[in-house]
Amino acid sequence: MSGLSNQNEQDFINHNLRPGQTAVVAPVQMNISLHTADPGEDGQLAEVIGGGYSRALITGPAVLFGAPANREIISTDVVTFNSMPAVTVTHVGFWRVTGSTAADFLASDALSPPVAVPAGQPARFPAGSLSVKFNNLHYTNYLAHAWLNFIFRSVAYTRPSGHTHQIYAGDPTGAGTAIGGATPQAIAFGAPAVSCLLYTSPSPRD
User: Fold this and answer.
1) Are 118 and 83 in contact (CB under 8 A)?
2) pLDDT of 172 strictly over 70
3) What are phi and psi of 53, to 5 degrees?
4) How far apart are CA 170 and CA 27, in angstroms?
5) In this predicted model, what pLDDT tens digit does every residue of 19-46 receive, in sequence order?
6) I need a labelling partner for 88 at 20 to 30 A (CA). Which of 114, 148, 179, 202 fits?
């Protein structure tokens, strides 16, 4: 995977589309991990081991990323891992620190090209070399950027308190226009399954 983890996407759905759910808390600290293959949806696969490797701790995530653009945030600071084993790094993982040892996997970034590191040398990722993308195109740029800002830069925004749906002729995020005579209807959502969710009221057939 590259982009948001399933857990992060479910948090996004619960926070933005299910007002009755507990609000998500923005990270105060973040870990960055290095991987030799795709880390998977929970970040547990192929993490670097050996040498003096340990996850990088970022205090105040806002210092790491710039403001989002085009559904993506890009690093604005250098991240260094000292005394690495001999390894080729293909992916970087991002984690929300929730305690002294606990962390929630948020996203991964596939490096292109991969970074080969000799034994005993540091792995340095300059500004502009790390990024996180919001790949789900079902949501507007506004909401994608608000979430990237919130989760990766601790920038608060007003959480939606309710929702309506409307029928459009064409893509409403582009040139689509609302169909006249179709009154917006209140809508509620059930719990997400993976990164999807289902209507609970009204029925999609109504």
Assistant:
1) no
2) no
3) -65, 135
4) 37
5) 777 788 888 888 999 999 999 988 889 9
6) 148
For the chain, the farthest-separated pair of C-alpha atoms sits apart, in whole angstroms, at 69
Q: Are 152 and 109 in contact (CB under 8 A)?
A: no
Beta strands 79-81; 56-59: pairing state: unpaired
Single-letter amino acid, residue 169: A
What are 192's two structure tokens? 């997400």
Q: Do strands 87-97 and 29-35 pair parallel, antiparallel, or not at all (unpaired)?
A: antiparallel
CA distances from 55 to 14, 33, 112 (A): 29, 5, 20
DSSP E strands in 60-201: the ranges are 72-74, 79-81, 87-97, 103-117, 123-125, 131-133, 164-165, 168-169, 177-178, 185-186, 188-189, 199-201
What is the spatial distance between Cα 147 and Cα 154, in angstroms, rounded to a whole number? 9
85-126 per-position pLDDT tens digit = 999 999 999 998 876 666 889 999 999 999 999 999 999 999
pTM above 0.85, yes or no: no
Pairing, β 3-4 against β 29-35: unpaired
